[in-house]
Amino acid sequence: MGSEKNILYRLYLIAGGILLFAILIVFKLVNIQISEGEKYKELSDKRVFKNFTIPANRGNLYDTDRNLLATSVPEYDIRFDALTVSQENFDLYLKPLAKELSGMLGRPQSYYINVLRRARANKNRYFLVARGLGYSQYVKIKSFPMFRLGAYKGGFISEQRTVRERPLGKIGERTVGHGQAGLEGAYDEYLKGKDGHRLKQKIAQGQWKPISDENEREPEDGLDVVSTIDINIQDIAHHALLSQLERFQADHGTVVVMETQTGEIKAMANLGRTDEGKYYEKRNYAIWESHEPGSTFKLMSMVAALEDKVIDTADVVDTEDGTIKYYDRVVRDSHRGGYGKISVARAFEVSSNTAFSKFIYESYKNDPEAFVNRLDYMGLNKKIGLEIKGEGTPKIPHPDDSNWYGTTLPWMSFGYGVSITPLQTLAFYNAIANDGIMIKPRLIKEVRSRDRIVYDYSQPVVQNSVCSKETASKVREMMKKTVKRGTAANIYTESFSMAGKTGTCLTGYGAGKSGSEYIASFAGYFPADHPKYSCIVVISKPDRSIGYYGNIVAGPVFKTIAQKIYIDTPNVDEIEELESTNKKVNKDFEKYFAVAQKYKTIVPDVKGLPAMDAVAILENLGLKVKLNGLGNIKKQSIEKGQKVKPNQQILISSI
């Protein structure tokens, strides 16, 4: 009897527990329906409905002539769902598919048979077949056996993404940039566009289906940016720099070419050396690397002294024996024994350190702040403010600095102790070519929406005047003579004119493997009398055993660039008076006409004729002409009187 009561008691407890549990369930259901219904409904909707991002097409990046620098193209990854294919279709199409994949992707047919079988055995529903295919390859692979059956019967899965292509490849890679670097990063606001959104509903097997034919928000394609870069000049600058870096086994180098009157940067090449001795676009040294410029800074010192009227170009400076001591340090000229007593202008041409240290020190030793203030006034202590990120900060010492010493001023005179980027240096040289007017360097011409201009940046930005027109004229003459008879005489040519200044700066101070290392540079413009382009070449840490002076290492790069641009650029002259008579022109034409009329089937004597006239006459005879030089012809490979032969080549030279 007692045991029956215990059993009954337990049954009551169990029944009570079940009832209580049921009550709790009912309470929770009511609570969910009434109190938390909206919350869970929203969560359910989120699982069933989802907003998918539709990426906007990124705008194109062009050079100044609308040649593509960067564009967006679709790229495809191909995957295989090995389970969705029936056994019959898998057996039937496996070998034909493997054969086609082998032909397209290059691996043996047996490889694809094995990996596809393994994927099916492992029940792999996402096997990677190929990555990064172009559109034409995607269309082709989609038609292969088995894959042509589609996603459910053939297991074909394609994933599209948009990638950025750069038609120039590695040329100008750091200038074009990617991510937040270069032109891509600088003008990302215009290029990126606005992504769209499309609402989709989740259906069976994890698939998502659009709930309507329209997007919630349509994607807006990015705008196109037309840069100032000229791919022809960029190519010239790149290869001229690369050739010299390889010859001198230098660590890195940079070249910038800028249009004088507009400030448009036409080329910006930056190459750094790998451990294997190859070169690639490593960093944007032109914008980023702030370093001691060496003797190219003598232009700034000269302009400051002329503007302050503490010297004149005709003043005489005694370079003594080529060495001058300031406190415990000695300034030396590269020319052993010194230059004797020379004018200030000649000191610039031969790049005398002793002369510059003397007249700058003597002029400003009692008030060094006046010299520094003049440099500040000329804008040398300010960044250019380019849109491209990473511009180096210039540094001009000030007498209030804790590390200002008695030797700081004389060393500043020839470019030591100061710090400036190659582009900042070029901007100053360009100002001198512009009669002292500083034009802001720029990399953008316009922003377009297809054929419509949205923003126009073609107007030059005038920043300030670095000096008077008179001072600019004086130093331009010095730079012209530097090339003709000074430190850069090795690059002088009668064919076209150049003006500039060499620079050789010690860097590392004994830190290199074989002692001290150098930075070789050349900055200037061309043509000398009517500047159209300014250019700077900086080559860091060339092999000392091969050469390290600016005129030997950097100067020839400048000349190569100038020469190729000069040849490719037609000279346009405006004639004010159409009726004017030029006796020399008439005489040259009469000589040209006489030769052209007389010789029809035999080689004429073209010696003494201008190069272009000689080319015209010879080509009209059917000869293939190879021209060396641009002046009056001095030599011809086929002598006068010989009969012209079909497709015959003739070499004519003005050198």
Keywords:
extended, seven-stranded mixed β-sheet, about 650 residues, alpha+beta, transmembrane helix, 25 strands, about 35% helix
Structural commentary:
It is a single chain. This protein is an alpha+beta fold and 655 residues long. It contains 22 helices and 25 strands. The strands form seven sheets. Strands 2, 3, 4, 5, 8, 17 and 18 form a seven-stranded mixed sheet that branches. Strand 17 (444-449) and strand 18 form a beta hairpin. The radius of gyration is 37 Å and the shape is extended.
Write the SSE topology.
Layout: H1 2-34, H2 37-48, E1 49-54, E2 61-62, E3 68-80, H3 87-105, H4 109-121, E4 127-133, H5 135-142, H6 150-154, E5 156-165, H7 173-176, H8 182-186, H9 188-191, E6 196-202, E7 208-210, E8 224-227, H10 231-248, E9 252-259, E10 265-273, E11 279-280, H11 285-288, H12 298-307, E12 316-318, E13 323-326, E14 329-332, E15 341-343, H13 344-350, H14 353-364, H15 368-377, H16 408-412, H17 422-433, E16 437-439, E17 444-449, E18 452-456, E19 462-465, H18 469-485, E20 499-512, E21 515-526, E22 533-540, H19 550-553, H20 555-568, H21 583-598, H22 611-620, E23 624-628, E24 635-636, E25 649-653
Parallel strand pairs: 2-8, 23-25
Antiparallel strand pairs: 1-6, 2-3, 3-4, 3-5, 6-7, 8-17, 9-10, 9-22, 10-11, 12-15, 13-14, 16-19, 17-18, 20-21, 21-22, 24-25
Helix pairs in contact: 3-4, 10-20, 13-18
